């Protein structure tokens, strides 16, 4: 088995984390190096020399040799092999002729394309490929670089400018480096040959930085109507131009970077072709105007489909328990402009427990939990009194500059502190190639908790990693490397040193109640999602994101931090500063000490509903009070709200409540060779007769009471998809009648079959793709057939040449001819394939489910799309059903079932599958009941009055439930093997569908 250390050796390569934080890497050259660092000065090592803003880094091709960093400020002399010395002064590099000086080195200075560097120190990195503190040797060293392909003069022209910058005061040094970067970006031309499609329309091209924790990399950002491209100034990536397809973009947010909204973070969906490093693109532009232009252009591209869930809905969903505490905190951090790519604004999570010493953790004991109503610095009263005394005695120019806590609850140092095992490169980058002193490293959960309770300078909260566990994972965004306490394990076998108590630092020491790292994080997540925390989390939100974050409320809540962590004061704008030095100092301080999140709430945050309140609240939503309409109809201007509000008022007088019954197995019969795709009652025979269709192309008349097939009809060689049947009279006055079956098929064709004679009345191609569902009107003139299809349309066809309606009865047209075709009246087009449909003719309401996870609500008479709902998972809608009053809609994807209050678009009921075997396949919905057919052959029955699962029917062993139907006190379940299972539904009252 390969050790972790060996694996690290094989993967060793130059990274921006080998440099100082935010140092810029420009370019590199192929060289052969000799140096006095080697015992054998004649040894030649092939590699590349990296030209960076503060240093030169030699990266050998042989990963067993260390990388060597030479700081410009430690270089005393340049020489070329022609004995020309380049004297380094404070402001320039001057070439002069000099005689060969004696040297202790055995380096042979040949007349070639080479450069000699003499310096007072050199830093060795990744010796033998190990992750460990860098070793700096303080002695006079001589490095001989022979350039393989390039001219030494090219290198000197760049290095000379960068060297001169190190001789300047720090503010001027930063300004000069920025000027060098801008100059090189102007010369960088985007390689348009790298476009995905030469027909792409170029919308935007600007200089930008890509931001990652502690590092930034300059380049050019190019936006087209299909993709976003970033071309780096250097070759740090395997491909200099990285492509991000806008069609996979699911989230974009503006970000605050150095006080200004010049950042934009884009998140893309992943698949097997896209590696994880392309998941997030965080760009920083020169100014807010350029950033806003880029942001607006991305949003206006037709291929971009984002989850634009309203902020208020997320809070409401959290209140109702639809999303977890963890997901809601992640959401608030995102809205509060916190990012995993910015260590000065890293997502912040609370300490929720206070018990880290007991052998057992009792989550039912309130004493196990931290007081979430107080900031971490105010939990210890004695410390708080000391800090308040210091606050009172502070002598500062203005009161608003006074603070309780000189430290902050989240900053780059704390992020590096917690993640030093998972990302040791962060620590080496931030701390100049060293890990912190052993006694200050993250060593023990108990010790860290004691420190945040007692130390005047330690008020840090936690990171999301403390709660990331695969046992709770329901968010595809979670990085698998952060899960299950990986950050607590010394997975790279790093030597962090020995503490003062002679304990060697390895894995983090856990509380006694945790069996291991995975168990620790799992129990931390259980605590976060516990009822106690759920009832108090809003108090902590008030402190971090809410009305107690700043101002007088923060002062009253003992929640005051250094004034610069809140951003630049209004009377001290960065852009108005006369001195660049002051601006740079201010930015440096904020980037090192962290920033307060954006304030999201100006009033107290609502409390999460208890489990009992959730049940009561959902019961009220599902059972409308007939005496008190919940929303008035006056002054409604939105057409959808007006349309649906009429439905609510119309339905109040007829709304009834029914008790849920129980199920008794009756019979099973295999009717088809392949999957059953539709079950409907026979319209002209007793209720013991059903019509079924299957993927085998047959329509069968099934006698339930005898468990056998009465008659069958071959319809098509292709699978059948949907069926509706009606009873038709031959004349208005006559009693003679027959049954017609309307059947949709994979071959895009509608088949109309006379079930009395067994003959085909009509077959007509209605769509350009599979017909997925159909519906026949009973009140319109003319009678209409409504069909949906994978061609992304719903079409309405006139049946006036075939039948008409008289007193709610269908009647054949006297002059009907079998050669007649159905004329199309109108159609509705959508952005994605239509997968399912349900209509309520009495309310003129049509619901259409689509492949992209959207549900479109349309006016049945006009074809107008009234509202669009979006499934949170964006998975295809497999089935949907409107309640008979038109107020609620139930729909399923393979992963979730959702019940929506249509007027408010609020999810009032959701349930997700726990495994692939239990993914959802079919749906039945009535006013008081949901039945979900599962992949594993079982059915879950939910009582919507109490919002609980009351039955699990084991219909078939591991054979998917493809369709569910109800008729006259019986439920029928079609399965993937062609069988129909019958269950008697025993209830005190007839089921209202």
TrEMBL record:
Span of domain BEACH-type PH: 197-299
Highest taxon in the source lineage: Eukaryota
Chain ranges passing through the membrane: none
Pfam families xref list: Beach, PH_FAN
Organism: Rotaria socialis
CDD domains: Beach (cd06071)
Protein name in UniProt: Uncharacterized protein
PROSITE patterns according to UniProt: BEACH, PH_BEACH
Ranges of residues in domain BEACH: 303-608
């Amino acid at each position: 088995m390969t050790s972790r250390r060996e694996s690290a050796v094989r993967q060793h390569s130059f990274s921006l984390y080998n440099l100082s934080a935010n140092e810029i890497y420009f370019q590199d050259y192929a060289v052969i190096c000799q140096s006095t660092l080697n015992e054998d000065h004649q040894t030649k090592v092939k590699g590349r020399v990296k030209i960076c803003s503060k240093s030169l880094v030699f990266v050998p091709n042989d990963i067993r040799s260390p990388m060597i960093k030479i700081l410009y400020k430690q270089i005393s002399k340049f020489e070329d092999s022609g004995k020309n010395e380049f004297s380094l002064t404070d402001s320039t590099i001057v070439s002069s002729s000099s005689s060969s000086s004696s040297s202790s080195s055995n380096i042979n200075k040949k007349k070639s394309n080479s450069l000699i560097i003499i310096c007072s120190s050199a830093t060795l990195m990744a010796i033998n490929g190990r992750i460990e503190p860098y070793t700096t040797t303080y002695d006079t060293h001589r490095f001989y670089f022979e350039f393989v392909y390039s001219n030494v003069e090219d290198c000197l022209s760049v290095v000379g400018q960068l060297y001169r910058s190190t001789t300047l005061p720090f503010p001027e040094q930063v300004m000069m480096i920025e000027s060098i970067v801008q100059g090189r970006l102007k010369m960088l031309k985007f390689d348009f040959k790298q476009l995905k499609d030469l027909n792409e329309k170029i919308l935007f091209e600007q200089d930008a930085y890509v931001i990652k924790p502690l590092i930034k990399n300059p380049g050019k950002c190019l936006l087209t109507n299909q993709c976003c491209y970033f071309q780096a100034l250097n070759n740090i990536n395997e491909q200099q131009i990285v492509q991000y397809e806008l069609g996979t973009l699911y989230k974009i947010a503006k970000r605050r970077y150095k006080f200004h909204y010049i950042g934009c973070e884009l998140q893309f969906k992943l698949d097997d072709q896209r590696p994880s490093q392309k998941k997030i693109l965080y760009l920083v532009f020169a100014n807010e105007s350029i950033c806003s232009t880029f942001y607006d252009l991305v949003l206006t591209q037709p291929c971009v489909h984002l989850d634009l869930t309203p902020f208020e809905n997320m809070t409401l969903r959290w209140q109702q328990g639809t999303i977890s505490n963890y997901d809601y905190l992640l959401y608030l951090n995102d809205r509060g402009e916190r990012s995993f790519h910015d260590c000065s604004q890293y997502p912040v999570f609370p300490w929720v427990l206070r018990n880290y010493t007991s052998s057992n953790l009792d989550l039912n004991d309130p004493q196990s939990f931290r007081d979430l109503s107080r900031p971490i610095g105010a939990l210890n009263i004695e410390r708080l009194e000391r800090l308040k005394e210091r606050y009172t005695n502070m002598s500062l120019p203005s009161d608003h500059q006074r603070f309780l806590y000189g430290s902050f609850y989240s900053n780059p140092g704390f992020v590096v502190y917690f993640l030093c095992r998972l990302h040791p490169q962060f620590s080496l980058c931030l701390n100049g190639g060293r890990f912190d002193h052993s006694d200050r490293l993250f060593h023990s959960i108990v010790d860290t908790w004691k420190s945040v309770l007692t130390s005047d300078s330690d008020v840090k909260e936690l990171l999301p990693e403390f709660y990331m566990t695969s046992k709770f994972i329901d968010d595809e965004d979670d990085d698998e490397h952060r899960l299950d306490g990986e950050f607590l394990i010394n997975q790279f076998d790093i030597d962090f040193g020995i503490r003062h108590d002679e304990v060697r630092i390895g894995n983090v020491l856990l509380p006694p109640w945790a069996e291991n790292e995975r168990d620790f994080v799992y129990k931390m997540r259980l605590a976060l999602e516990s009822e106690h925390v759920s009832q108090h989390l809003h108090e902590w939100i008030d402190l971090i994101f809410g009305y107690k974050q700043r101002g007088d409320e923060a002062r009253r809540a003992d929640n005051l931090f250094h004034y610069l962590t809140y951003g630049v004061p209004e009377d001290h704008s960065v852009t108005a500063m006369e001195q660049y030095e002051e601006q740079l100092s201010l930015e440096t301080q904020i980037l090192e000490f962290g920033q307060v999140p954006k304030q999201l709430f100006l009033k107290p945050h609502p409390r999460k509903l208890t489990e009992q309140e959730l049940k009561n609240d959902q019961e009220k939503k599902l059972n409308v009070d007939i005496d008190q309409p919940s929303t008035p109809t006056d002054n409604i201007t939105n057409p959808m709200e007006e349309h649906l509000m009429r439905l609510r008022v119309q339905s109040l007088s007829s709304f009834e409540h029914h008790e849920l019954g129980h199920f008794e197995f009756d019979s099973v019969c295999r009717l088809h060779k392949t999957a059953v795709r539709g079950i409907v009652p026979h319209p002209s025979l007793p209720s013991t007769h059903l019509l079924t269709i299957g993927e085998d192309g047959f329509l069968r008349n099934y006698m339930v009471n005898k468990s056998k097939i009465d008659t069958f009809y071959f319809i098509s060689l292709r699978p059948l998809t949907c069926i509706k049947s009606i009873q038709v009279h031959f004349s208005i006055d006559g009693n003679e009648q027959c049954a017609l079956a309307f059947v949709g098929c994979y071959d895009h064709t509608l088949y109309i079959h006379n079930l009395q004679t067994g003959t085909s009345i009509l077959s007509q191609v209605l769509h350009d793709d599979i017909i997925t569902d159909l519906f026949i009107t009973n009140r319109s003139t003319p009678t209409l057939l409504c069909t949906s299809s994978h061609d992304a349309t719903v079409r309405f066809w006139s049946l006036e040449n075939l039948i008409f309606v008289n007193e709610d009865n269908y009647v054949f047209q006297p002059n009907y001819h079998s050669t007649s075709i159905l004329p199309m009246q109108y159609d509705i087009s959508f952005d994605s394939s239509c997968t399912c449909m349900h209509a309520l003719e009495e309310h003129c309401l049509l619901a259409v489910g689509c492949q992209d996870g959207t549900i479109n609500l349309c006016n049945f008479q006009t074809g107008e799309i009234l509202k669009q709902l979006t499934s949170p998972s964006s998975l295809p809608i497999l089935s949907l059903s409107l309640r008979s009053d038109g107020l609620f809609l139930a729909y399923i994807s393979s992963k979730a079932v959702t019940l929506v209050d249509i007027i408010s678009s609020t999810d009032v009921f959701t349930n997700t599958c726990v495994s692939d075997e239990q993914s959802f396949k079919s749906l039945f919905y009535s006013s008081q009941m949901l039945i979900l057919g599962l992949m594993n052959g079982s059915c879950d029955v939910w009582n919507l009055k109490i919002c609980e699962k009351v039955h699990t029917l084991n219909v078939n062993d591991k054979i998917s439930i493809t369709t569910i139907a109800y008729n006259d006190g019986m439920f029928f379940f079609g399965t993937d093997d062609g069988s129909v299972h019958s269950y008697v539904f025993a209830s005190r009252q007839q089921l209202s569908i």
